[in-house]
């Protein structure tokens, strides 16, 4: 069995902390004062799509929650608690749903094979498949179909956020929460704004 050396991450951490401290003696002491993130991000747990790496996020900028296939489930008290804290305690007014092409959770839901306990979670994505059955069936290429499902899933989770009591109560209080649909593309390293893309296609 291959031996994995996790100590390299601790060594990296020491170097990283030293560089930041040397450049700004108050960097870490300022962090202890509290957080004021500019947005909340719901992303996938996939190890290849780290928002901090891909988006160049500094500490304290994003309030992040991650799960398999970036799903908003109305029975998921974990996500709902995170969202409520973000909106009500941190005053966040922008929420990003951040999916990615090549998502294993999306593929597993599409293939509809038995995955044990995971099937209960994937049922949320299977609902997306059912709602967009005709559109997906019209796509012949399997890779394109899965990519489209990734996009549809992100957009569907935006709609699910709108159905939460947290979002509705914010609207009733006159608080505008902007929702953003983003997808990371492994082939280019770029993040695509699905809403901006949709608006652009409507103008053409």
Automatic annotation (TrEMBL):
A single GO molecular function term of this UniProt record: carbonate dehydratase activity
Positions annotated to bind Zn(2+): 44, 46, 100, 103
Keyword NAD part of the UniProt annotation: no
E.C. code: 4.2.1.1
Annotated coiled-coil segments of the chain: 122-149
Top-level taxonomic group: Bacteria
Keywords: Coiled coil, Lyase, Metal-binding, Zinc
Reactions listed under catalytic activity: hydrogencarbonate + H(+) = CO2 + H2O
InterPro entries named among the record's database cross-references: Carbonic_anhydrase (IPR001765), Carbonic_anhydrase_CS (IPR015892)
Cofactor(s) in the UniProt record: Zn(2+)
Cofactor binding note: Binds 1 zinc ion per subunit.
Biological process according to GO: carbon utilization
Keyword check for Kinase: no
Family: Belongs to the beta-class carbonic anhydrase family.
Protein purpose: Reversible hydration of carbon dioxide.
Protein name: Carbonic anhydrase
Native species: Arthrospiribacter ruber
Source organism phylogeny: Bacteria, Pseudomonadati, Bacteroidota, Cytophagia, Cytophagales
């Amino acid at each position: 069995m291959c031996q994995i050396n996790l100590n390299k991450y601790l060594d990296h951490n020491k170097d990283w902390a030293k560089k930041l401290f040397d450049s700004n003696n108050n960097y870490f002491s300022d962090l202890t004062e509290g957080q004021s993130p500019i947005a909340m991000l719901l992303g996938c747990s996939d190890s290849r799509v780290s928002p901090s790496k891909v988006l160049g996020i500094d500490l304290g900028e994003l309030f992040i929650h991650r799960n398999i296939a970036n799903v908003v489930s109305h029975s998921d008290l974990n996500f709902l608690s995170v969202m409520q804290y973000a909106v009500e305690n941190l005053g966040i007014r922008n929420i990003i749903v951040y999916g990615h092409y090549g998502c294993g959770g999306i593929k597993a839901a599409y293939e509809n094979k038995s995955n044990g306990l995971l099937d209960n979670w994937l049922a949320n994505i299977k609902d997306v498949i059912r709602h967009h059955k005709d559109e997906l069936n019209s796509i012949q290429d399997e890779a394109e179909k899965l990519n489209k499902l990734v996009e549809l899933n992100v957009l569907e989770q935006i709609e699910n956020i709108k159905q939460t009591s947290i979002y509705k109560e914010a609207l009733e209080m006159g608080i505008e929460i902007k929702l953003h649909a983003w997808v990371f593309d492994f082939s280019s390293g770029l993040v695509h704004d699905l809403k901006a893309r949709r608006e652009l296609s409507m103008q053409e």
